[in-house]
Specification:
The protein has 218 residues and is an alpha+beta fold. The protein has helices at 3-69, 71-75, 90-93, 103-123, 151-168, 193-199, 211-216, and strands at residues 80-82, 85-89, 125-132, 176-180, 201-208. Helix 4 packs across helix 5 (151-168). The protein starts with a helix and ends with a helix.
Length: 218
């Protein structure tokens, strides 16, 4: 075989190895990109897990603080605490279809106002006071039902009454607001008297201030 022919054969084999090298380089590059992406996802998941754990720990500490603040009323069975929401039976606060506080209800709010005010100030939170009713429509007659157009109005008025009472007892007006839910968000069946009694209630829920308000607050 002549030297020229050998040279031609060698020259013909160079592009094959060069192409294989390019392929390997591309594969390594792709693998490196996949590895970087996987590491990035792993870091993102780890950071998300740390954030969720911190949030759960904060929520648990918040509930412990709230339980400690309300230890007296909770021990006496005068209020309930579930998922950060303080529940008071409507019959303790108000007569049937009325928005006027009963003496027992006013005394209970008096006992709650001090611990709640301290808790809200310590944590920089605000208190939502929510009124709820059963699903029976308003009717005229005894108990003042004729004063209210529907359950929405009754629940709103009761929430306002409790809110004003808490303000009178020392909770700053900027740290409490009222909300009405009428017969919505029932916690029991409305098909029997016991269930309807549970649905007639007022709840109070501490919550974070809106972002803009929290930024402006000292």
């Amino acid at each position: 075989m002549s030297g020229d022919a050998l040279d031609d054969g060698l020259e013909g084999s160079v592009p094959v190895w060069a192409a294989f090298g390019d392929l390997m380089a591309g594969a390594l590059g792709a693998f490196a990109l996949i590895l970087v992406a996987a590491l990035g996802m792993q870091m993102e998941l780890a950071e998300r897990l740390r954030t969720e754990q911190a949030q759960r720990a904060e929520q648990a500490q918040r509930l412990v603080s709230l339980e400690q603040a309300l230890a007296g009323p909770l021990a006496a069975g005068r209020v309930t605490l579930a998922h950060g929401r303080i529940g008071i039976s409507g019959s303790v606060l108000f007569a049937f279809n009325s928005d006027e506080l009963q003496p027992e209800g006013r005394q209970l709010l008096h006992s709650l106002a001090g611990p709640l005010a301290a808790y809200l100030q310590q944590r920089g939170e605000i208190l939502m006071v929510s009124g709820f009713t059963d699903d029976r429509p308003m009717r005229g007659g005894a108990g003042g039902a004729a004063r209210f157009a529907d359950n929405w109005e009754l629940s709103a008025q009761r929430a306002l009454t409790v809110t004003r009472a808490l303000i009178d007892e020392g909770i700053p007006s900027s740290a409490v607001f009222a909300a009405a839910f009428g017969a919505e968000q029932a916690v029991a069946s409305n098909h029997d008297p016991a269930g309807r009694a549970l649905n007639r209630r007022v709840e109070m829920a501490p919550m974070a201030r809106p972002a803009r308000e929290a930024t402006a607050s000292p």
